[in-house]
UniProtKB/TrEMBL annotation:
Residues 86-337 form the AB hydrolase-1 domain. The lineage of its organism: Eukaryota, Viridiplantae, Streptophyta, Embryophyta, Tracheophyta. The keyword Cell division does not apply. The chain crosses the membrane at residues 20-40. Keywords: Membrane, Transmembrane, Transmembrane helix. InterPro entries: AB_hydrolase_1, AB_hydrolase_fold. This is AB hydrolase-1 domain-containing protein.
Length: 355
């Protein structure tokens, strides 16, 4: 008995000590982490357009359900005269002026997340769809309209098929970004596509998915290469893309500064966080929204796209037999900028109603 109680009392202080030590360490480490987060990792707040000291508002905007403003640009015929109304959703690191899809065929509303729209820290594929529907209604685009989503704009285009199929006249996805974390992509297929990416982009995608709180620092530090898109490093692109960019010359220059005027986090990183995050749905689960052939869905993809692996697109096309898949040989991610391609894409999208 005496032995036992002696053993007990001799154990107590040391067990208390071993309890105290780690908790104080945890608190200190916690404080250091919090300070680090505040000073290094936390992105500065986005520069709200139109407020003092921030970029001016130079485009029409609509007011959305939660008070945010959404900027847009109209191209083509005045909307009262147009037979076909298309909402074009541009990709990452672009803006409303990049409406390469503005052809004479149809007016295009270029939908703008970045640049002049108010930031949406709670953005998801679904919230983008609600934004688009509100834009269409406030601009009186009618009960059904076309949607074209390019690259990161694919998030919203897939979302439209999921959430507002009854509002769609047709959908076209142009080199839409594939989320390696969609549930229905078999591991071997998504891994194969993932490995085709540069190491720096593999890491940036992992960080965007698993540690989005780290992505601001990741894409702005100079110790190692962050995302190639965030760093505007065209070195990874295929030759057809390099040729197209060379041909474009300085035509994008006047508005290039506007694209990131709210800061890299809202303009670029947010796309990655949403695009490679956990989606509320999986496009591979989608069902044909046009059972009566009153519209059609098209997906265009270059087979030399270094940003979006063609193998993943082929898998999706194979799983969604109602989707019309157009693979463009010898083309990279920027093939719509090649002469005549946009006309073909838009004509194909409208074919149903032209015939
Ligand atoms: C993935 O695995 C399936 C089933 O084992 C196989 O049929 C398919 O060819 C594989 N795909 C790739 C890209 O490895």
């Amino acid at each position: 008995m005496a032995n036992g109680s002696a053993r007990k009392s001799s154990l107590k202080p040391s067990s208390r000590k071993s309890f105290l030590l780690p908790s104080s360490v945890i608190i200190i480490v916690g404080i250091i982490l919090a300070l680090t987060y505040q000073s290094i990792l936390k992105p500065p707040p986005p520069k709200l357009c139109g407020s003092p000291g921030n970029p001016p508002i130079t485009a029409p905007r609509i007011k959305l359900r939660d008070g945010r403003h959404l900027a847009y640009k109209e191209h083509g015929l005045p909307r009262e005269k147009a037979n076909h109304k298309i909402v074009f959703i541009h990709g990452s690191d672009s803006c409303r002026h990049d409406a390469v899809f503005a052809t004479l065929l149809s007016p295009v509303r270029s939908y703008k997340f970045l640049e002049l729209s108010d930031p949406d820290p709670n953005r998801t594929p679904k919230s983008m769809v609600l934004d688009i529907e509100e834009l269409a209604d406030q601009l009186s685009l009618g009960s059904r309209f076309y949607v074209i989503g390019k690259s990161m704009g694919g998030q919203a285009a897939w979302g439209c098929l999921k959430y507002i199929p009854h509002r769609l006249a047709g959908v076209t996805l142009v080199a839409p970004v594939v989320n390696y974390y969609w549930r229905n992509l078999p591991l071997n297929v998504s891994t194969q596509g993932f490995k085709l990416q540069q190491k720096r982009d593999q890491w940036a995608v992992r960080v965007a998915h698993y540690a989005p709180w780290l992505i601001y620092w990741w894409n702005t530090q100079n110790w190692f290469p962050g995302s190639s898109v965030a760093n505007r490093d065209g070195g990874i692109l295929s030759q057809p893309d390099k040729d197209i960019i060379l041909n474009m010359g300085s035509s994008r220059k006047p508005h290039l500064a506007e694209v990131r005027q709210q800061g890299i986090h809202e303009s670029i990183n947010r796309d990655m966080i949403v695009g490679f995050g956990n989606w509320e749905f999986d496009p591979i689960d989608l069902e044909n929204p046009f059972l009566n052939k009153e519209g059609s869905v098209h997906l265009w993809q270059g087979d030399e796209d270094m940003l979006v692996p063609v193998t993943l697109q082929r898998y999706i096309a194979h799983k969604l037999p109602w989707l019309h898949y157009h693979e463009v040989p010898g083309s990279g991610h920027f093939f719509p900028f090649a002469k005549g391609v946009v006309d073909e894409i838009v004509k194909t999208a409208l074919m149903q109603s032209i015939n």
